[in-house]
């Protein structure tokens, strides 16, 4: 077994049992894992009842996402499986991945958020579809940008009493997650939370 990030053999590495919450199914070496900074940053607002971001979006995170998303290295989904499982292990909550835009889905071979959840063995429901309204007539650039992240709920909401948890790889402005939460709330969902793997932090 070799480290998924640096290809070094994992055999002679010390076992860092609790490091980053990653235990027996460790898929990267401690030297690589040490570069990820666990932050467990939580915010709350009106639309998103809570957003929990697990790690800082630092250099290691940037490299990871590049390799994972654009180089399509699906094995990398394993690295955060245990961390994600530990925060998404409530079977009463309904896990909803943020989908890719259909255009991107054609270009990439897999949805990275779905892959993260599958690696973590977390059941999820793909309730959302990303849409871009066709731009008719003259719209300003800002109007067009504002329209790029709309979501449609594609299935019936069976229980609006349940807590829905959106999952995305990174929290940046929160616009994507807020739009997705709004789409669910318009269908009667009362509480929408979110979990993201990364979130940018200000340098100290
Ligand atoms: Zn490594």
Automatic annotation (TrEMBL):
Location of the Phosphoribosyltransferase domain: 164-200
Natural source organism: Sporosarcina ureae
UniProt family annotation: Belongs to the ComF/GntX family.
Signal peptide extent: none
Name the UniProt record assigns to this protein: Phosphoribosyltransferase domain-containing protein
């Amino acid at each position: 077994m070799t480290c998924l990030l640096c290809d070094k053999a994992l055999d002679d590495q010390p076992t860092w049992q609790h490091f980053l919450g990653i235990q027996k199914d460790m898929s990267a070496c401690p030297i690589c894992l040490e570069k990820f900074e666990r932050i467990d940053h939580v915010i709350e607002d009106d639309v998103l009842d809570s957003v929990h971001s697990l790690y800082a979006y630092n250099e290691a995170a940037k490299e990871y996402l590049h390799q994972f998303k654009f180089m399509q290295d699906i094995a990398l989904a394993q690295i955060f499986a245990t961390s994600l499982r530990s925060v998404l292990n409530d079977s009463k909550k309904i896990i909803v991945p943020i989908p890719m835009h259909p255009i991107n889905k054609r270009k990439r071979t897999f949805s990275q958020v779905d892959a993260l959840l599958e690696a973590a063995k977390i059941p999820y429901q793909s309730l959302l579809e990303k849409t871009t309204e066709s731009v008719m007539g003259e719209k300003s650039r800002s109007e067009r940008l504002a329209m790029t992240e709309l979501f449609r709920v594609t299935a019936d909401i069976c229980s609006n009493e349940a807590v829905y948890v959106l999952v995305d790889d990174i929290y940046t402005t929160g616009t994507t997650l807020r739009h997705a939460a709004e789409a669910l709330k318009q269908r009667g969902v009362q509480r929408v939370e979110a979990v993201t793997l990364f979130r940018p932090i200000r340098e100290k």
